[in-house]
Design a protein that fits this description.
InterPro entries: DUF2852 (IPR021273). This is DUF2852 domain-containing protein. Keywords: Membrane, Transmembrane, Transmembrane helix. The chain has 106 residues and is mainly α. It is 78% helix and 0% strand. The longest helix is centred in the last third of the chain and has 51 residues.
Amino acid sequence: MFHHFFHPLAFFMHVVGIALVVVAAVMFLGARRGFARHRCGAGRESYPRRDTDNSAFEDYRRATITRLEKEAEEFRSYLDGLRRAADASAFQAFLRARKSGESSAS
């Protein structure tokens, strides 16, 4: 039944087949990892910068990037203001609850 495993050539072919499967899996996973790294990079610095020969497009691209960075900064400061307002509201509610708890305990 298992006599072909003991034949040297058959055993060698099994080992080669398993090695090929392992190599293919490593190559596939490595390619997927590289693809994910490229697609999920942290910001635009993860992508290679390619200047074009079109100066009008480059001017438009620079202006758009500058505008988007400014809008992103404004949005971050808006969110920071919202967080501060929520924190202040929660703190005021805590102080009112504490004050009402002290007055009822007295």
